[in-house]
Predict the 3D structure of the following.
Amino acid sequence: MANRLIPALLIALLLVLHAQLWFGRGSVPKVASMRQQLAAQDVANREAQQRNDQLVSEVRDLQEGLDMVEELARAELGMVKPNEIFVQIAQNKR
């Protein structure tokens, strides 16, 4: 009887493990589906990162551009912001 029980238990265990492989939580189809989702998410992440880099570059260009415009306006046109006091020191020529 023990000679027949052990192979039957091993076959039952094999069937349970095989069922888990195909239908369980970490089954082959679910892993394949998750890999496809991961690949799609990686593509979306790369596209979002490129867009973020482009926006950061645009913001930096705008900030530097405005700083340069403000600097030129202050130097050449005497621009003064509200609540600022402009003091010009005249030099005597001797």
